[in-house]
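Late entry, evening session. Most of the bench is empty. Finally got around to the prediction I had been postponing all week. Sequence below, unchanged from the version circulated by S.P.
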Amino acid sequence: MKRPVALFGALAATATLAACGGSDSSAGDPAGPPQPGGTLRYGLSLAPTCSDPAQSNTNQTLYVTRQIVDSLTDQDPATGEITPWLAQSWQVSPDAKSFTFTLRPGVTFSDGTPLTAASVQQNFDAVLKTLTPAKAALASSYLAGYTGTTVVDPLTARVEFDRPNAQFLQATSTPQLGIQAAATTAKPADQRCLGDNIGSGPFTYAEYKQGQSAVLAKRTGYNWGSAVFGHQGEAYLDRIEFRVVPESGVRTGSLTSGQLDAVSDALPQDAPQIEAAGGRVQVTSNPGVPFGIQPNVTRGVLADAAVRTALLTAIDRREIVDTVLGPQYKTATSSLASRTPAYLDLSSKLGYDPAASGRVLEQAGWVPGGDGIRTKNGERLSFAVSFTSAFAGNQAILELTQQQLRKAGIELRLQPLADAEYTARQGSKDFDALYYNTTRADGDILRTNFGLEGRNYNVRGPIPALDDALTAELQTVDTAARAQFLGRAQQLVLENGLLIPTVELSQAVGVSNAVSDLKFEASARLQFYDAWLHRD
């Protein structure tokens, strides 16, 4: 079988990429005091799916929507600490059922209406009652057990749950729970995707064409930025123009020729061209659940736990990174990505060992067939994996994985789907397995993806030890104790074959020498507030 062409080239070793650890790299940033003004032209690799932060799921969408909305809190990308933003202080009850936020005075939405405790109430109520989990899956999962928000006084909101919800404080730093004006929260879900969302953020929508482009304008008078931001007052940029440019070569050419100022998904083989033009590539790895195959444990051969166990060691993750991706990517070493708080290194369980996979399958009765694919009682060891092009590397990664699994006698059938069909199959659980990742800078993303009351794309029944660990982490406010429960959950996700991790997602943004201080926030999404331009 033909080896897949390396998506990011065989020249990975020559790509000099500025690694940024937990935040962003500013290597090559020209020095000098920030200069206000100008329009930054940004090339997205995929079209935004909705203008509403609460309904945003893809990185390309969040690059746009994050800029128009503020959150109650922020998260320091370097330390993971939760810091003030719209809320200047907060109190968490010992049982983690009640969260009381004292809001910063003087904040207004872009329609002139004030931020009040009622705004918090309206936003959280709308997530569950108007948007519902069908439209706002992540936001809804953050509000598990929500009973309501009490307006204690105009600037004090008490958010209450019927069960402990220790992850909620971090959730209030996400764009999905960003606060929007009453004029937006009163609308039906679909009408919140049309580009007229009203937030309190440093930018506002000036133009929005679904599937094509978005233009943001600086919010005049903005003066309530997060404590994490590099300055206070208004954003430096006057405007941001987001254009959808799907072809990587066109994005790079547009960047180096000066037609664009920054672009998504810069590839390692493009780095020399970008750097020769005076630019740079900024990289950060995503926290959350890494890319991996999530099996439906009720479907076909994947109902056999031995098959899922064999899959863990039948994939050569290092070959995927070296052949398909490049040096800015990491192999997956757990069911959480390595930048996620409470991450536990489980690389010893994910080493490439096809002989071990073969022994597990032999013991379970799967014997080699005439074409090399194993069989058991006349059934081929074959399953399909559904995926989208949300990440440009998905097809090539899975083609190489397909070759690797075949060496172990496992047939992987690739099933690329359009976004709409993929979402529909997720909802109906009509798939053998899914391939995707989920970004979040909190280990509770395990509950979202693998919990019985979460997405549960495994379609699994009770696993008492895992269910207990996910319940306990939600009940535990103490950071160290919570990390212990999350560590146990990471182990059990792998032991039960609920995720076959492959690689960690990274964001690689090509930036021209005209741009300074374009930064990543804690969840690896771009923050344009501090960015500024200096053109010749």
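Two things to note before I forget:
The first helix runs from residue 59 to 65.
The first strand starts at residue 18 and ends at 19.
Will write this up properly tomorrow.
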